[in-house]
Fold cytochrome-c oxidase.
Amino acid sequence: MDLTQGTQEEKNSRAKKMMLWFGIISLIMSFMGWTSAFIVSSSRPDWLKDFELPNAFLISTIVIIISSLSFILAKKALKNGNRSATTLWLLVTLILGGVFIFNQFLGFQQIIDLGYNFTGPTSNVTMSYIYLIAIVHILHVVVGLICLLVVIYNHFKQKYDETKMLGFELAATFWHFIDILWVYLFLFLYFIR
């Protein structure tokens, strides 16, 4: 398929989708770099080998998976022309995104309660990596929530329908990406010591 063919709207759609994928690929590369550094650093003598992730991180993982499902249901409702169900599922996704972030901070508090801070004399290189990876991911979830708010606003302005969904689809793709990314990060931090 020639990328220069089609209407201006089709070209615009392809360009925006491609830009999103370039961004996603660069995020993948960044997180792969941090997880690679985590693996290399795990050979240090001061590395914590017997640390268990806080339960709040498991809860946040379940929440973010459910939020992806609710976004899928919102998209399905939009395609079926059911505006009220679309609204409901978008709001559920937004709330679950907030619950995810809340649980992440609960997890940080559980780490602090164990005596490990991000920096200072009570810090540890293992915990510093966990803080860094989780905080950078939280920042991307915040970006996802902002995208979701824009989608909700545009949905209320009736800018989307079953034939016009570009912004909705871009936000959904990013949301699913950050969800999958967290599942990968959680499993990585859980199993790699």
Notes: The mean pLDDT is 92. Helices lie at 8-41, 55-79, 83-113, 125-156, 166-191.
